[in-house]
Amino acid sequence: MNKKVKKYILIMIPLILSAYTHLWNPLGFPSIHIDEGHYMRRAMLVLEGMGPQESATTGYPRTYDHPYFGQLFLAGALGLLGYPASFNPHSDVSSIQELHLVPRILMGLLAVLDTFLLFKIAERRYSTTIAIIASILFAIMPFTWVFRRVSLEAILMPFLLTSILFALYVKDSKNIQNKALLNSKSKYEISNNVLILLSGIFLGLAIYTKIPAFTMIPLIGTLVFFYSGKNLKSVGIWFIPVITLPLLWPLYSVLVGQSDLWAYWVFWQTDRDPSETITFDGAITNFLKLDPLITILGISGIVYSAIRKDFLPLMWISPILIFSYLIEWVQYFHLLYIFPAMCLGSAILIDYGQKIIAKHSHPIISYSLILAITGFAIVITSMLITLDVNSSYYNVYATIAQQIPSTSDKVQRNVTVIGSHFWVWDSYWITQFVLDKPHYVTDPHLDSKFKKQVQTNNVLFVDDPIFLKSISRKINSENLIKIREIHNNSVEIASFIDNVTSHTTDSYPYNTLPIMISNEGHPTGKVAIRKNY
Amino acid sequence: MNSFSSIVFGVALLGLTLVVIGTYNHKYDNSRPLTAEKIEQPPVNVSDIMNLKGNIISLQNNDSGVPEWILSGKWQIGAKTDNNTSTNATGQPEIKFSSTITMASIDGTRTHKHRLTDFKLLNMLFQNRTATINGTISLVTSEDDFGIIDKRLENVPVGVTVMNVNTVMIDMDKNSVKQHFGNFPIYGKVG
Fold it and tell me: Cis omega (within 30 of 0) on the bond before A14?
């Protein structure tokens, strides 16, 4: 077998594993996160020609909380498929599932691309062996399920990894340890300046997706500096798109005369008070609980690399961890940035371990280490990704969609949906923008004192424990009194038991299921749909 | 730059152009209000302050500006009758204000109680998110403190200011209460 074919086969192993862990059962696991509803709603706005900036008048009131590339990318990718019209959307359960399936498959494909990019990064920087191990770990370690959700971190990851990869491809470096790659000549070579610009553009797009990606500037800037032969001019060229692309966001707010709003919501994001559960310590603890093996291996490998004076993995994780520590308001999925570095660190350590074992025993025995880890990880990840935690979710969603009537002009709103923050916003993007069933929402999370009047005679309630608690509070509000009155006169038309964490047990990995829905206000238990019309 | 580099660079520029077009090329919604939970709140009116109640949470300083008394207790604003909409002769809604205040010295050795009762409304002022109710009250003091203040002081002018339906400030005429509450109003919280 020639070398090229062997290499293709080797690279296919992590890619096939990644395709399995990220594309198997995308509807069933993990639970639909509240933020998925937010990002899909914004993508729908772009697809409807309303631009990437959500209107506070008609949409979610926290307007300038993130830059725009997330919704632009989602809308672009989904729009190429003719989504949603080409899927002939309806309000039945199967159609609601299909509408969720497409973006989740897109995210799965991005994760497969991430696997490939991590392989190329590790191959370029270290060796093919480390590349295979790192990409396999990325594909199968339990934490990788977080990439299955529609999240800004998962969307920006391929752009971030591509930025790192382009920086590593800058030529004539004395830092490439895999010297064989330097000798290869190809007609598809890209010149240094273009590579540097591309690296900057991709990092700029990552930051234009979510601002904390700026914490990768020290890593990639350092790579550009050293791989270009300590050329500061190269770093300057690289830095132009890194800075200018994210500036499109504040510039937009200036153009529409809302720079004050932009500043307000940016400061709101950075000043969010950490609660008892949303803290840096909590995020790290949850990361450890979700994937103890990659945490231990990754940290050990990163320390080992640093001792060997290879600071790439350490520079990858340090700025984001320091930033997260300072911000305080951190959740486990915000740590997605460090997962590839953990896999890389683990791979470096495992490679070292394999070499030690091979020295003292038969080379085949040395593979036992990675085989054991792979076997363990595949079993654990399979236990999770084969679960169905969303069946009630789609049933509740479809019932809400069915009960909101269509209007002839698709503008007039005849119904107000009142329920917990999770349900009114998660159900909004399909009912409002895909099925064209315009309606108002009342969200006790954003309007905690019920200052907003119910604007229609027809009201649809989504009763769950969180919502029922919010309307039973002692609040001096005429509107709340009216809502209670309408609620009492409404009729229950369907009820479901949300099974999102029903598979929880005391043993790993099922004990991590509550973490999956932590801090997002996902109601569990009975969800009843009631209406007064 | 070789030809492949040029092609890649061209594709990158095209991609960037699409991003810029995607960001800016659409109908702007300039009519968007400054919707922020704290920025855009409607002005308050009488219905917003009717039936409000809460706690007194205040400190009283001595003449040197050093805290001397801790003030705690309850306050409430409500309708004078069961019918919230009834008005007096001047067209003002019939509302009542009452409060209980416990004063404890900082060192914990002394304590006494007051009741603010028999509220008579003079006028009400509403300015954006601030509501001020002016009137008179009777200040009733527990027996322990008769040495400092009369058991019952009547027709004490008082201003009750509710801010953002969130905090309250009770300002009694200082001379009428013989500077008993110091030089500053008494503060409290709604809810």
Answer: no
What are A504's two structure tokens?
């929880």
**Integer Cα distance of A284 and A89 in angstroms:** 40
Does the structure show a pLDDT above 90 at B145?
A: no
| Alpha carbons A17 and A44: distance in angstroms, whole number | 32
**Does the pLDDT value for residue A286 go beyond 90?**
yes
Percent helix, strand and coil across chain B, each rounded to 5? Answer: 15, 45, 40
pLDDT of residue A235: 96
Q: CB neighbours of B125 closer than 8 A, spacing ≥ 6? A: B131, B132, B134
Q: What are the tokens at A381?
A: 């990840």
User: Rounded to whole angstroms, how far apart are CA atoms B153 and A73?
Assistant: 72
Query: What helix, strand, coil percent values describe chain A, rounded to 5?
Result: 65, 5, 30
What does the block give as tokens for A518? Answer: 């932590």
Return the amino acid letter for A449: K
Residue A248 Cα distances to A40, A43, A254, B53, B104, angstroms: 21, 18, 10, 48, 58
CA gap A298, A348 in Å, rounded: 9
Contacts of A52 (CB under 8 A, 6+ apart): A42, A45, A46, A68, A71, A72, B22, B23
Best residue of A46, A162, A190 to probe chain B, by most B CBs closer than 10 Å: A190
- Chain B touched by A383 (CB under 8 Å): no
- The pLDDT value recorded for residue A216 is 97
Is B35 within a domain?
A: no
pLDDT of B127 strictly over 70: yes
Nearest of A75, A64, A71 to residue A249 by alpha carbon: A64
- How many residues does the structure list for chain A? 533
Cα separation values, B158 from A144, B76, B163, Å:
64, 14, 16
Which pLDDT score is estimated for B36? Answer: 40
Chain A within 8 Å of B3 (Cβ-Cβ)? no
B35, pLDDT greater than 80: no
Any CB–CB contact under 8 A between B14 and chain A? no
Cα–Cα distance measured from residue B85 to residue B76, given in angstroms and rounded to the nearest whole number: 18
ipTM: 0.87
Asked if the model's pLDDT at residue A344 lies above 70, the reply is yes
Find tokens 């529609």 and name the residue.
Answer: A150
Contacts (Cβ under 8 Å, ≥6 apart) of B15: A201
Give B-chain residues touching A256 at CB under 8 angstroms. Answer: 28-30, 32
Q: Does B85 have pLDDT greater than 80?
A: no
CB A484 within 8 Å of CB A450: no
Structural domain boundaries, residue B115: 46-190
How far is the CA of B129 from the CAs of A173, A264, A444, A452, B93, in angstroms? Answer: 65, 20, 21, 16, 19
Structural domain tally of chain B?
A: 1
Shortest Cα distance from A162 to chain B (angstroms)? 13
Q: What is the mean pLDDT of residues B48-68?
A: 88
Burial of residue A307, with CB atoms counted within 10 A of its CB: 0-12 exposed, 13-18 middle, 19 or more buried? exposed
B126 forms bridges with which residues in the sheet? Answer: B131
- Establish if B25 belongs to a structural domain: no
Q: What is the DSSP letter of A55?
A: P
B20: contact with A, CB 8 A cutoff: yes
Spans of all domains in chain A: 3-56+65-385, 391-531
- By C-alpha distance, the chain B residue nearest A75 is B22
d(Cα A395, Cα A408) in Å, to the nearest integer? 26
Single-letter residue type at A210: K
User: What's the predicted TM-score (pTM) here?
Assistant: 0.81
- Ramachandran assignment for B178, one of left (phi > 0), alpha (psi -120 to 50 degrees), beta (any other): left
Taking CB atoms and an 8 Å limit, are A49 and B29 in contact across chains? no
